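BACKBONE STRUCTURE TOKENS:
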Amino acid sequence: MTFDAIGIAGTALTVHRKWLDAVSDNLANANTATSTAGDAFQARYVIAQAGAGTTGVYVQGAAFGDAEGRLAYQPDHPLADADGYVRYPDIDMSSQMGALIMAQRGYQANAAVVDRARETYLAALQIGRG
């Protein structure tokens, strides 16, 4: 049972770490401008899937945001087209910050589960020695 808890929490740690990676990439590229001839940075979203039985949770894959992005009128920008537009990713900073907080809290909660399960296992070993 203790090993199951450690294994399940470990799979969740991996999913939350990948979620944190995706959100940090999205936040880092939220203001990345491209020319209107190219695609905007595509936000990455992690798709998680429950494992069979009590095997935990896994990253099934990733979904990507719209490459169309949003156009901004900035005629002085070096990448501006003839009409003065540049392309930015369509990333909502507030939703990304909310996702960042949820992923961080999920990671912390699962790390605490691993710590508690380890402590329980060590206490059980001490009882067996006594």
Remarks:
- The beta strands are 44-50, 57-64, 70-73, 85-88.
- The chain has one domain: 2-31+41-68+94-129.
- Residues 2-31+41-68+94-129 form one domain.
